[in-house]
């Protein structure tokens, strides 16, 4: 976990060090993916949802409903 945290902090630092022009160019190419660095995941929600993950179909299965994750 420490390794992930270090990378997250490093990526946040890089993003925050960029001027607005560089951030805009990045967003033009990759969309708002960098904003995911600043989202605090809900650990309880993730733990609950992992039980519904179907790795074969790469989606969440809730009874008869499939829910896929789109990035």
From TrEMBL:
Pfam short name (any one): DUF7745
Domain DUF7745: 17-65
PANTHER family xref list: AMINOTRANSFERASE-LIKE PLANT MOBILE DOMAIN-CONTAINING PROTEIN, PROTEIN, PUTATIVE-RELATED
InterPro entries in alphabetical order: DUF7745
Protein name, entry field: DUF7745 domain-containing protein
């Amino acid at each position: 976990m420490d390794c992930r945290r270090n990378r997250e902090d490093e990526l946040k630092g890089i993003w925050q060090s960029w001027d607005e022009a560089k951030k805009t160019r990045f967003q033009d190419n990759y969309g708002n993916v960098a904003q995911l660095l600043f989202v605090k995941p809900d650990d309880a929600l993730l733990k609950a949802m992992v039980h519904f993950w179907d790795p074969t179909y790469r989606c969440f299965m809730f009874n008869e409903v499939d829910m896929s994750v789109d990035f």
